[in-house]
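Before a colleague's protein record goes any further, I have to sign it off. What it holds is a sequence and that sequence's fold in token form. My question to you is simply how this chain folds and whether the tokens agree. Thanks in advance; the entry in question is below:
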Amino acid sequence: MKHTSQSLPTLSHEINNYLTIIYSQLQHIEHLYKYLSKDEHWLQMKEDFSSIFHLLDQALEEESLACTTAESTLLSDFLLRLYHSWLPRLSERQIRFSIPSEIEQVSLPVSEYQLEHIFHNILNNSYDAICQKESSGTYTDFISIETELHSKSLQIQIRDSGCGMNQSQLAKVLNPGVTYKKNGHGIGLPFVLEIMDSIGGQLKILSSPGRGTIVILNFPLDH
């Protein structure tokens, strides 16, 4: 039984990660087929997904996070996998996607599941923010990932050319249950913040209407 209980946090992270990807695909399908946004069964299915997200959020408390923070993930390998995973979807929407040409060979003090959750949530938000505004031309919109290595930390910036947020929205965006997306669940960014807090990292968001958003992640490094 002890082995089973120790594996639950990892299992919860894995389930949450795959559900996030599936939910993102549902939003993409709804964007392609507008009539679904008014379909009763479709809306009920999305509500069911939101309920599952909330249940998982309750399961992933600080004790669960503590079980996985001893793990680490090599940044270079992770970003390459992330790039190839997201490129087809973003290219379909004519959104430029870039990562550093040379990636620092450092390991971040988070499990791969946690890192996937962090980036998939942020990239989903960037994608939705771009889709909410009118594009001004072919491949004029972008999402970029930039890294900056310091002596005791690594900073990662995720920038997008989305619709952005005003100061009132920005002040509340990290609060649980707060979302500015249609049919959003409002637990993604708060959980990202929880992960960063659990490892002694920092999360900062800069944004303004019409000028996009910058999400800044500071990861502590052990030497």
Observations:
- Residues 2-32 form the longest helix (31 residues).
